[in-house]
Amino acid sequence: MAAGIYVGSTSGYSGKNMVIMGLGLRLQKDGYDVGYMKPVGAMPHERGGVLGDEDAFFVQDVLGLDEPAEKVTPVLVTQDFKVKAFSGQCEDYMPAITSAYRDLSSRHDVMVVAGSGSMYSGRYCNVDGIRVVKELGIKAIIIDRLHKELNYDYLVVLKDTLGDNLAGVILNDIPGNFMNEVDGLIKPFLERNGVRVVGVIPKDPLMGAIKVGDLAERLGGKVISAQNKSDKVVENFLIGTMQVENFMTHFRKNKNSAVIVGGDRSDVQLVALEGNCPCLVLTGNLYPNDIILTRSEILNTPIVVVRDDTYTVAKKMEAILSRHKLRDVIKIRQGAQLVSSSIDFEYIKEAAGL
C-alpha cells in the first residue's frame, strides 16, 4: 500500500488544489510515483461520456495521470444524490471509497487524497473528511486560509478529533503585515496544542487574479473594445462612484485594479483609462461615448459592459476574485512555486511514511 496524504481545509475555496498540485509536482520531482484521488466530488462534470469531478479531471491533467473517473471520485454529489441523502436514503459509500483507494494506491508510491469543501462537508451522508481520513487510516494536512482571521479554534478541535491522523496544518494567504502575529502568537499557540504548522503561504495577488475575458463571461457582460487584450489580468477592483479627485487618490494606490463605474460617468472612465487600469467595467448596460471608446482602443484597455448596477457587480466581483479557480498555466507554476518554497516537505514525507 502506498503512503497516503489527505489534503483538507477549514472551509471551501481555501487553496486545496494549489497545495495538492504543488505537493504532487514536488513529490514527482523527488522521484515518487504519485497517485491522486478525490473521494467525494461536488462538481459533476462530463468528459468523453464519463461523469467525474471537474477539479479531479483538472488536477489529473496537471499531474499527468489518467485513472478511471469512477475510481478517482467514487462519490459524486449530484442533485439526485442530495435529494436521496436528505430524505434519509443514504447508502454507506465508505466501502466504495476504501476499495477505490486500495486499488489506486496499489499502483503508486504515494497517494494524495483531496478533500471537498470543509472537513465536515458531506456529514449529512457520512462522507465527511473526518470519516474518510479515519477509515483510510492516512495522515491529514489541513489548510486554513486567512479570511478576516484564522480559524485557530477549529484547528485545535480538529486535533482533538483526528488525533495522530492530523499531520499538520498550512496557513494560507497570509499578508506581509500579518506575518509577525502568525510567527509570534498563532504558530506557538497551535504548536502548544499539538498542532504542527507545516507551512505558511504568503498572500500572492496573482493567485486571485482573473483574465478580463473570463471576468466578462462570469459577470454576464461583453468586451466591446480592445478585445485582443482580453487576456490582461485583473487582481482587484475599485468602484468609481466617488468624486474624481478622491477616485484618483485611491486609484494610484491600487494598480492592476479593474474599475467598476456607471456607463454615464465619462469623467471617471477617462481618469481610469489614462491611469493604465487593466479594464473598465461599465454598469447599467450603458455604452461609453466615442472619446472613451477611441482612448480605450489606443491604450489597449478593454471595456466590459454589464447589465447589473454597480453595487451588484461589485458583490459579484468580490465573489469571483475570492473563488477564482487556478486554471491558468502561469498560476499553476506560481502556485506550485509558492507551495514548494513555503512548506516543510521533509516533515510531510516523514509523517506520511515515505
For the termini, the CA-CA separation is 12 Å
CATH level 3 topology of the largest domain: Rossmann fold
- Helix/strand-derived category reads alpha/beta
How much of the polypeptide forms β-strand, as a percent range?
15-25%
In total, how many beta strands?
17
Mean pLDDT: 90
**CATH level-4 homologous superfamily of the largest domain:** P-loop containing nucleotide triphosphate hydrolases
In this structure, how is the largest beta sheet organized? 6 strands, parallel
- Number of discrete helical segments: 15
Overall CATH architecture of the largest domain: 3-Layer(aba) Sandwich
How many domains would you count in the coordinates? 2
Fraction of helical residues: 40-55%
The shape, in one word, is globular
Rounded to the nearest angstrom, the radius of gyration is: 23 Å
Pfam family, one: DRTGG
Subunit structure: Homohexamer.
InterPro entries: DRTGG (IPR010766), P-loop_NTPase (IPR027417), Phos_Acetyltrans/Butyryltrans (IPR050500), Ser_kin/Pase_Hpr-like_N_sf (IPR028979)
Organism: Nitratidesulfovibrio vulgaris (strain ATCC 29579 / DSM 644 / CCUG 34227 / NCIMB 8303 / VKM B-1760 / Hildenborough) (Desulfovibrio vulgaris)
How does this model look, in words?
Pfam families: AAA_26, DRTGG. Homohexamer. InterPro entries: DRTGG, P-loop_NTPase, Phos_Acetyltrans/Butyryltrans, Ser_kin/Pase_Hpr-like_N_sf. This is Cobyrinic acid a,c-diamide synthase family protein. Residues 214-319 form the DRTGG domain. With 354 residues, the chain is an alpha/beta fold. It folds into 2 domains: 3-204 and 325-352, Rossmann fold; 210-323, Udp-n-acetylmuramoylalanyl-d-glutamate--2,6- Diaminopimelate Ligase, Chain: A, domain 1. 43% of the residues lie in helices and 21% in strands. It has 15 helices and 17 strands. It has helices spanning 16-29, 54-63, 69-72, 79-86, 94-105, 129-136, 152-162, 179-192, 212-218, 244-253, 266-274, 290-298, 310-323, 329-342, 345-352; strands spanning 3-9, 34-37, 40-41, 44-47, 50-53, 75-76, 110-114, 139-145, 166-174, 197-202, 210-211, 222-225, 233-234, 236-239, 257-262, 280-283, 303-305. The strands form 5 sheets. A 6-stranded parallel sheet has the order 2-7-1-8-9-10, with helices on both faces. It has a 5-stranded mixed sheet with strand order 12-17-16-15-14, with helices on both faces. Strands 3-6 form a two-stranded parallel sheet. β16, α12 and β17 form a beta-alpha-beta unit. α1 runs parallel beside α2 (54-63) and α10 packs parallel to α11 (266-274). It is globular. It starts with a strand and ends with a helix. The model has no long low-confidence stretch (mean pLDDT 90).
